[in-house]
Write a structure and sequence with these properties.
By secondary structure, the protein is of the alpha/beta class. Helix 2 runs parallel beside helix 3 and helix 5 runs parallel beside helix 6. The chain is built from seven helices and seven strands.
Length: 193
Amino acid sequence: MVATGSMSDPYNPLERRYGYTRGLLELLDRYRFGAAIATKGTLVERDIDLLQRISTHSPVIVKVTITTPHDTLSALVEPHAPPSSRRLAALEALSKAGIFAGVLLMPVLPFLEDDPQDIRLLVQLCAKTGVNCGTGSGNIFCSRCVRIGRRSGNGIWTTARIISAPAATMESCGKSLRESAAGTASSAGWSRL
């Protein structure tokens, strides 16, 4: 499996002109490799046909970063990325096409994107898209607030669902996490599910 998106977004604005990511996916398909894609871009929808083809012989996962449910805020903190609503639509298109799709709910910026009600709304919006998995920032989410996914006996994520705790629980967890100077995943109670 070849992973993309950890250092540079594979669906940045230049991809529309040059098509390097699509070319990479064609090579992965030809040589029967899987693909793991992390992006903020919605151009990934263009490559659904290739991702479907690759998924017939190898694993495929596409994770889309969304950090706020509000388009106006996403435009301020990520001015060159598509709005959150458009990224949610891309997740839905991937899910409907049978692509294993997930959401990256990070980084969540303190005092801008860490409101527990907004986080809860974003998780609910993601759930409506049919995402298969999700990853949250250990500084914001803890296992009492949001539980994403379910593993089979062999540790592989086979099915997933998003469950959000009552607002009071999220508020108390979010407040204590924001107040924690260290904010490490272990001290926040975050664990792999």
